[in-house]
């Protein structure tokens, strides 16, 4: 009898073990750093139809607008709770002269966008239009200044124009242009990609320039001092980080790096026409950002063990071939479940590094690269939300939450974990848990040990698709959208979830 009981118990135990494809443990006893909301930052460059036709259509447009800002786009972005928006570039920043974008719009000079298709722009979207948009969205502006083709004086005066409240020449010019109070811009980038389109510099030369420029960038508001961000490395170029950290003055509060999920810069590949192998290689490649962050952190730790200088991933995301039939150089690309997966995995990785990583800006917010929103290029006034938009929306509870490290045991494919997960204690006191099943053809049952955290209920949202290459377009805007997830339950402190193939689930555990 005893023998039978033992056999039955062993059988039950083995059934339980095989019932789960993955196990996760929340390490609630050793919480990590706060996840700065700026990790959920966005980027808006004068590139293609990001600004003109995306964010801005002008007051006289037949497309519904609020003082020139496209209404549908504005409302969708407001819903996303964007914490910070980077502008005007990118490469465009080092070609931009801010004085061309102030004063009466009809008197502003036109310019050629040299980096992006040679498109002519009328400068109707400038400093006022950008900073007022940030106020309307309730987000911090992050301005990238021109080091490559600008001057110290030009940059210093731009800051005076935006931030001086007193009787100074630039503040008076701003007032003349209709804005009485300073905007108090906090995040200011001293150049962009100084190693490339921002001036083709060596790190030694850029570091010296940074020292020079930063000397003249004044703080006009002691309550909200400038947070200067130095232009940093291309991907894993840690030499750049090393030279800057070693030789810079103490003026930089942040140092950036850029990483795009691109396998071959000469052949990006189609955004929508790809096979399973290409999907899995993208999932593997996007995880490289983890190694890159660690590498930069190691260098920074050497010079700054107290983490006084933040690391900022101020450009990241996928970069595919431009959509057939769109303007060359405008980087207009579609967005599928593959992009959504890259977004979720990258955000999970960022959460693990928030001790040092204080900001990330996905490229870009509308109509460019891995965007949140696509607007119809034919000017019909149609707009769609991309799968990546939905990921950012689902992950909102992570903004300002405290990261909870997770230990994951799961199946690997080509040595890459097939489950991505991150967890955090939200400001409401609940737990946010994000889970992605990257397998295209297999559901996975995940068991999550909450390590004694009190849990009485769970609500969840899921993003998935019939096919990994599905996307939303103007005729079919709702092919991919979020739905309520009913596959999670809690029993005796253990949370289980059955993740559909190729799905992203965000749960709130109360
Ligand atoms: O986001 C597109 C471009 O990529 C940016 O302008 C530049 O900084 C980067 O090379």
Structural notes for this entry:
- The chain is of the alpha/beta class.
- Helix content is 26%, strand content 25%.
- It has helices at 2-19, 71-80, 127-137, 152-163, 169-176, 203-215, 238-247, 276-286, 288-303, 337-351, 387-394; strands spanning 22-26, 41-43, 65-66, 69-70, 84-87, 111-113, 119-121, 140-145, 187-190, 227-234, 254-261, 310-318, 357-363, 373-375, 383-385, 402-404, 406-409, 412-413, 416-417, 419-425, 431-437, 444-449, 458-463, 483-484, 488-491, 494-499, 503-509.
- Strands 2-5-8-9-10-11-12-13 form an eight-stranded parallel beta barrel, surrounded by six helices.
- Strand 3 and strand 4 form a beta hairpin.
- It is globular.
- The protein starts with a helix and ends with a strand.
- Bound molecules: alpha-L-arabinofuranose.
- The site of alpha-L-arabinofuranose (AHR) has 10 residues, from loops.
């Amino acid at each position: 009898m005893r023998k039978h009981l033992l056999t039955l118990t062993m059988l039950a135990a083995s059934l339980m073990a095989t019932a789960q494809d993955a196990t996760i443990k929340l390490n609630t006893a050793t919480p990590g750093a706060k996840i700065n909301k700026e990790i959920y930052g966005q980027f808006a460059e004068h590139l293609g139809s990001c600004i003109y036709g995306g964010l801005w259509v002008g007051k006289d447009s037949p497309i519904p607008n609020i003082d020139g800002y496209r209404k549908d786009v504005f409302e969708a972005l407001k819903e996303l709770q964007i914490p910070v928006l980077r502008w005007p570039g990118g490469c465009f920043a080092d070609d931009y002269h801010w004085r061309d974008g102030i004063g009466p719009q009809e008197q502003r000079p036109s310019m050629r966008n040299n980096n992006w298709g040679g498109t002519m722009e009328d400068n109707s979207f400038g400093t006022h239009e950008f900073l007022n948009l940030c106020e309307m969205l309730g987000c911090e502006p992050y301005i990238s200044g021109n080091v490559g083709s600008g001057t110290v004086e030009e940059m210093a005066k731009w800051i005076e124009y935006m931030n001086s409240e007193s009787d100074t020449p630039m503040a008076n010019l701003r007032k003349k242009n209709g804005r009485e109070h300073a905007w108090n811009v906090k995040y200011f980038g001293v150049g962009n990609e100084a190693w490339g389109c921002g001036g083709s510099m060596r790190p030694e030369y850029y570091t010296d320039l940074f020292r020079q420029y930063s000397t003249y960038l004044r703080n006009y508001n002691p309550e909200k001092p400038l947070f200067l961000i130095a232009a940093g490395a291309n991907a894993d170029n840690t030499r750049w980080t090393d030279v800057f950290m070693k030789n810079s003055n103490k003026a930089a509060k942040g140092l950036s790096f850029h990483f795009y999920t691109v396998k071959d810069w000469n052949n990006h590949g189609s955004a929508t026409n790809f096979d399973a192998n290409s999907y899995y290689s993208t999932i593997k490649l996007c995880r490289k950002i983890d190694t890159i962050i660690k590498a930069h952190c190691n260098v920074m730790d050497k010079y700054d063990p107290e983490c006084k200088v933040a690391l900022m991933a101020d450009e990241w995301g996928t970069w595919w071939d431009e959509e057939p039939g769109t303007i060359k150089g405008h980087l207009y690309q579609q967005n599928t479940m593959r992009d959504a997966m890259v977004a979720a995995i990258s955000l999970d990785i960022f959460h693990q590094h928030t001790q040092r990583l204080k900001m990330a800006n996905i490229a870009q917010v509308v109509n460019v690269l891995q965007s949140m929103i696509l607007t119809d290029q034919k000017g019909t006034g149609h707009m769609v939300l991309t799968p990546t938009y939905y990921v950012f929306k689902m992950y909102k509870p992570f903004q300002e939450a405290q990261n909870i490290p997770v230990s994951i045991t799961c199946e690997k494919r080509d040595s890459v974990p097939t489950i991505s997960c991150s967890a955090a204690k939200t400001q409401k006191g609940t737990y946010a848990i994000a889970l992605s099943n990257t397998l295209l053809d297999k559901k996975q049952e995940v068991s999550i040990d909450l390590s004694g955290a009190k849990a009485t209920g769970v609500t969840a949202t899921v993003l998935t698709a019939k096919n990994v290459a599905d996307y939303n377009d103007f005729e079919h805007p709702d092919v991919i959208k979020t739905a309520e997830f009913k596959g999670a339950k809690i029993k005796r402190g253990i949370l289980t979830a059955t993740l559909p193939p190729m799905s992203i689930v965000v749960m709130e555990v109360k």
